[in-house]
C-alpha cells in the first residue's frame, strides 16, 4: 500500500489548540451515524451535539446529554455534510477516557473527504498519537493537522478499544474552495481514490497499518521504560506516530540503551532477579546497576525461605558476541522455564504476559539484548551456564527444607474455562490444548450443540467422538449445552416444550445418551444438562418444570445453570450446579443449592492482572465456600491470527489466555499460569483448614484478598503452611 505510506509520512498529529487561521467549517452542520448512539445518560440532541461549537473540558463528560455515547460498538461511521466544497486543513474530535470505568479514547479515527460522496480520499488516522493511551479520567482533543483535502463531505470511521466511547465535538478547519474544475481534476489525479464500494476493504487495510505503527510504538516504549531517566531520553519524544518518526525514535532509543549498558555494566551476561510482575513492568537499567553494586557475578545466592511460586529474572548480554545459555533446575522436576514476552496492548502500555517455553532450557541472547525469564513452580535452586565455555553465570541455592507434598486429588476445586475444541486456535492445536487442560486441572467439559446428536440418533456417535478426544473422562464433569432458547419444541419433535410428547421423546433421547457416554468411560453421575445459557427471568419457569420432571422421571438427571440476573436466582434451588457471575458471589450464602461455582467474563483479557484477576479467583472461591471457578474463555477468538502476541486486536473481542508466536507455535500466558497456581493454592488452604479451623483460615484468606496490591502475600501465606506449619 504505497499510497498509504506516502500519506502517513507527511502526517502531523498534535493535541488540539484553537490557534488556527482557518475557520471551523463544521459549525452547525448536519451529520449521520452508521450506529445510533445508545448510551442512555447522554441521549438528547445527538443529531446536533457534535457540531454545536461547545467542547467540554471538565468532569461528567458522559453524564450530560450534550455528549454522544455508544456502548458495545466496535465501529461507528460519522458522515458530515459541509453543504459546499471546502479546502480542508485540519480535523479535530473532543473525547474522554477513564479506563477503570471501561471508557477509552477511540482506537482509530480514519478521516476521509469527498466531493460527491461517492469517491473518497483518505487523510489519515487522527488517533495515531502518543497520548492515545489508557488511564485515569481525562478529556482530550485530538487533531489531524496540515491536511490538503478538498470536499463537501467528511467521513470519520471510529473504531473502539473499550466498552464505551464518547464524543462531544467535531471540528473541521478550512476555507471556501474557489478554484475551478481543472483544479479538482488535478486533485483527484494526484490522490488515491477510494470508491464507496471499496471502502470496507480500505478501512480494514488502514486499521491494520495503524495497528502496526502502534505495535512498534509499544515496543519502543518498553525500551524507554528500561532506559529510565536517561539524560537524552526527553529528547526522544514524538507526538506523530508515522513510519519515519518511529524508525528514527527506535534507532535513537536502541543506541542510547546499548551505550548506557556498555558504560554502566560489566561485560558478559548480567543477571538481575526481579521480584514479581509489578516490578517487571517498571524494571529499568537502574535496577540492574544497583544489583551489580550489591552482588558479584559469580556469587552464589542462598535463599532460606523464598516466598515465590514464580522466579523472575533479567539477563543482559553486555558483550559484542552472541551468547547461548542453559538453565539447570534443581529439586523440582515440575519447574518450567519461559521467556516472558511483551504483548502488544491497545491500551498503550507494555504487558509482560506471553510465555515462550525454553526448549531444552537453552536460550540465545544477541549482543546487547535484554530478556526476561520466569521459572514456574519454583521450589529449588537453579544454575545458569554459558554453554560455550560451561562457565556459571549465576547460581541460586535453596537451603530451606523441602515443602510438604499436597494430595491434589483431595479438596479439588472444579475448573471450567469453556474450552470448545472447534474454536480456531484450539482446533489447530488439539494435542497442546488437551494436554494443557489436563495438566492445569480442568475437570469440566462443556459440549455445545454442534457436537450433540439430535433426537432420533441411535448411538450418539458425534458426541462420543468429541468427548473421546479428552483425557481421563472418568474424572470429568460433562455439561451438555443443548440450548433450548429457540426451536425447543421442534428439537424433540413436539408441538410445545414440555408437553407429553416432548417429555417422552426427551426421556428416550437422554436415557440413550447416558448409556452411550458410559461406554466411553464417562461417570453417569457427572453428566449435567445445560438448557439455558445465562438464564433469563422469562426462562426460569421452564427450567424449574424441566428439572422437577426430569429428576422424577429420568435416572441420573442433573442440571447446570449460569445466573447473571438477580431475577433468575429462584432456579438455584433446583439446579445441581449453580454458576454465579463474580458480581453475585455474595448471594451464595442466602440461596440454596448443592454446589456453587463462580465465573468471570474478561472482555479485555490480555489487559487483566495475572495476580489479582486470575490467581486470587480461587482464593475468592475459598472465602465464599464455592466449589468451582472459571472464566470466559480459555480461547474464544474469531481467528487464530488474533492470538499473535505482537499484534494488537480489538479488546472487546479478546477472550484468550493463549497466544501464537511468529511461527504459529502456541504460547501460554502468565495469566493462565497464575490461574493454575491459584487452583493449587486452594488445595493447600483446604488441606490445612482442619488444623487451624475454618474461620481462622477465612480470616487469613480475607487478608490476602483485601491486600491484593501486595502481590507476594499469597505466596508468603502458602509457604507458611507448606514450610512452617
List the helices and strands and how they pair.
Elements: H1 2-9, E1 12-15, E2 23-24, E3 30-33, E4 68-71, E5 75-97, E6 108-114, E7 119-125, E8 138-145, E9 149-159, E10 164-176, H2 181-189, E11 193-195, H3 199-227, H4 243-264, E12 268-274, H5 277-282, H6 285-294, E13 300-303, E14 310-318, E15 323-329, E16 336-343, E17 351-357, E18 362-365, E19 370-376, E20 382-386, E21 391-398, E22 414-416, H7 424-427, H8 430-440, E23 444-448, H9 461-467, E24 477-481, H10 488-491, H11 500-518, E25 527-529, H12 540-553, E26 560-563, E27 577-581, E28 595-601, H13 610-623, E29 628-632, E30 659-660, E31 666-669, H14 670-692, H15 694-706, H16 713-724
Parallel strand pairs: 13-21, 22-29, 23-24, 24-25, 26-27, 27-28, 28-29
Antiparallel strand pairs: 1-8, 2-10, 3-5, 4-10, 5-8, 5-9, 5-10, 6-7, 6-9, 7-11, 12-14, 14-19, 15-18, 15-20, 16-17, 16-19, 17-31, 20-21, 30-31
Helical fraction: 25-40%
**Count of separate structural domains:** 3
Q: How many helices? A: 16
Percent of residues in beta strands = 25-35%
CATH topology of the largest domain: TIM Barrel
Low-confidence stretches: 1-20
What is Rg? 29 Å
How is this structure best described in words?
This protein has 16 helices and 31 strands. The longest helix has 29 residues. The protein has 3 domains: 205 residues, Jelly Rolls, CATH 2.60.120.1190; 131 residues, Immunoglobulin-like (Sandwich); 258 residues, Alpha-Beta Barrel (TIM Barrel). Strands 1, 2, 3, 4, 5, 6, 7, 8, 9, 10 and 11 form an 11-stranded antiparallel sheet that branches. A 7-stranded antiparallel sheet has the order 12-14-19-16-17-31-30. Helix 14 packs across helix 16. It is of the alpha+beta class and 725 residues long. It is globular, with a radius of gyration of 29 Å.
Amino acid at each position: 500500500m504505497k499510497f498509504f505510506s506516502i500519506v502517513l509520512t507527511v502526517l502531523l498529529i498534535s493535541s488540539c489548540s484553537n490557534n488556527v487561521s482557518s475557520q471551523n467549517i463544521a459549525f452547525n452542520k448536519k451529520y449521520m451515524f452508521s450506529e445510533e448512539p445508545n448510551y442512555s445518560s447522554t441521549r438528547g440532541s445527538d443529531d446536533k451535539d457534535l457540531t454545536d461549537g461547545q467542547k467540554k473540558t471538565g468532569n461528567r463528560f458522559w453524564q450530560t446529554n450534550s455528549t454522544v455515547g455508544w456502548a458495545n460498538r466496535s465501529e461507528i461511521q460519522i458522515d458530515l455534510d459541509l453543504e459546499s466544497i471546502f479546502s480542508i486543513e485540519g480535523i479535530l474530535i473532543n473525547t474522554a477516557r477513564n479506563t477503570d470505568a471501561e471508557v477509552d479514547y477511540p482506537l482509530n479515527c480514519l478521516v476521509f473527504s469527498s466531493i460527491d460522496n461517492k469517491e473518497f480520499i483518505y487523510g489519515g488516522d487522527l488517533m495515531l498519537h502518543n497520548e492515545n493511551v489508557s488511564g485515569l479520567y481525562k478529556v482530550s482533543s485530538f487533531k489531524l493537522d496540515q491536511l490538503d483535502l478538498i470536499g463537501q463531505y467528511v467521513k470519520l470511521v471510529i473504531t473502539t478499544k473499550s466498552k464505551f466511547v464518547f464524543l462531544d465535538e467535531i471540528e473541521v478547519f478550512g476555507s471556501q474552495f474557489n478554484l475551478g474544475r481543472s483544479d479538482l481534476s488535478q486533485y483527484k489525479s494526484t490522490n488515491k481514490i477510494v470508491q464507496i464500494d471499496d471502502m470496507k476493504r480500505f478501512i480494514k487495510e488502514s486499521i491494520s497499518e495503524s495497528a502496526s505503527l502502534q505495535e512498534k510504538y509499544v515496543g519502543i516504549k518498553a525500551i524507554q521504560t528500561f532506559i529510565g531517566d536517561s539524560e537524552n531520553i526527553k529528547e526522544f519524544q514524538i507526538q506523530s506516530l508515522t513510519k519515519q518518526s518511529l524508525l528514527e525514535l527506535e534507532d535513537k532509543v536502541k543506541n542510547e540503551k546499548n551505550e548506557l549498558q556498555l558504560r554502566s555494566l560489566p561485560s558478559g551476561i548480567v543477571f538481575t532477579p526481579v521480584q514479581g510482575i509489578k516490578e517487571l513492568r517498571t524494571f529499568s537499567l537502574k535496577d540492574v546497576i544497583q544489583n551489580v553494586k550489591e552482588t558479584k557475578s559469580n556469587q552464589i545466592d542462598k535463599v532460606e525461605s523464598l516466598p515465590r511460586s514464580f522466579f523472575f529474572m533479567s539477563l543482559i548480554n553486555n558483550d559484542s558476541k552472541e551468547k547461548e545459555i542453559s538453565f539447570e533446575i534443581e529439586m523440582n522436576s515440575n519447574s518450567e522455564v519461559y521467556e516472558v514476552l511483551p504483548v502488544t496492548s491497545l491500551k498503550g502500555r507494555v504487558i509482560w504476559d506471553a510465555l515462550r517455553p525454553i526448549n531444552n532450557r537453552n536460550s540465545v541472547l544477541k549482543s546487547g539484548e535484554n530478556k526476561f525469564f520466569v521459572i514456574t513452580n519454583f521450589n529449588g535452586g537453579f544454575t545458569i551456564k554459558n554453554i560455550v565455555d560451561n562457565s556459571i553465570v549465576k547460581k541460586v541455592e535453596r537451603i530451606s527444607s523441602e515443602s510438604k507434598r499436597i494430595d491434589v486429588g483431595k479438596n479439588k476445586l472444579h475448573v471450567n474455562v469453556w474450552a470448545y475444541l472447534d474454536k480456531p486456535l484450539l482446533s489447530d492445536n488439539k494435542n497442546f490444548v488437551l494436554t494443557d487442560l489436563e495438566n492445569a486441572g480442568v475437570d469440566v467439559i462443556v459440549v455445545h450443540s454442534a457436537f450433540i446428536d439430535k433426537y432420533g440418533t441411535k448411538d450418539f456417535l458425534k458426541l462420543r467422538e468429541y468427548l473421546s478426544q479428552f483425557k481421563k473422562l472418568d474424572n470429568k464433569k460433562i455439561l451438555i449445552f443443548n440450548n433450548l432458547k429457540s426451536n425447543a419444541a421442534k428439537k424433540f419433535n413436539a408441538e410445545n416444550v414440555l408437553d407429553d410428547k416432548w417429555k417422552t421423546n426427551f426421556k428416550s433421547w437422554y436415557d440413550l445418551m447416558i448409556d452411550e457416554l458410559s461406554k466411553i468411560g464417562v461417570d453417569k453421575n457427572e453428566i449435567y444438562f445445560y438448557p439455558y445459557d445465562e438464564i433469563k427471568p422469562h426462562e426460569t419457569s421452564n427450567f424449574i418444570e424441566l428439572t422437577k420432571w426430569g429428576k422424577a422421571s429420568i435416572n441420573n438427571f442433573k442440571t447446570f445453570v449460569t445466573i447473571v440476573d438477580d431475577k433468575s436466582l429462584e432456579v438455584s434451588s433446583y439446579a445441581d450446579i449453580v454458576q454465579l457471575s463474580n458480581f453475585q458471589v455474595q448471594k451464595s450464602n442466602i440461596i440454596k443449592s448443592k454446589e456453587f461455582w463462580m465465573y468471570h467474563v474478561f472482555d479485555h483479557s490480555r489487559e487483566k492482572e495475572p495476580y489479582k484477576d486470575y490467581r486470587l479467583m480461587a482464593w475468592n472461591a475459598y472465602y465464599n465456600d464455592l466449589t468451582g471457578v472459571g472464566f470466559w474463555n480459555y480461547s474464544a477468538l474469531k481467528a487464530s491470527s488474533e492470538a499473535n502476541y505482537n499484534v494488537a486486536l480489538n479488546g472487546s473481542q479478546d477472550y484468550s489466555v493463549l497466544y501464537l508466536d511468529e511461527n504459529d507455535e502456541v504460547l501460554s500466558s502468565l495469566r493462565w499460569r497464575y490461574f493454575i497456581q491459584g487452583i493449587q493454592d486452594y488445595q493447600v488452604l483446604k488441606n490445612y483448614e482442619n488444623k487451624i479451623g475454618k474461620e481462622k483460615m477465612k480470616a487469613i484468606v480475607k487478608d490476602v484478598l483485601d491486600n491484593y496490591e501486595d502481590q507476594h502475600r499469597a505466596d508468603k501465606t502458602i509457604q507458611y503452611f507448606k514450610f512452617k506449619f
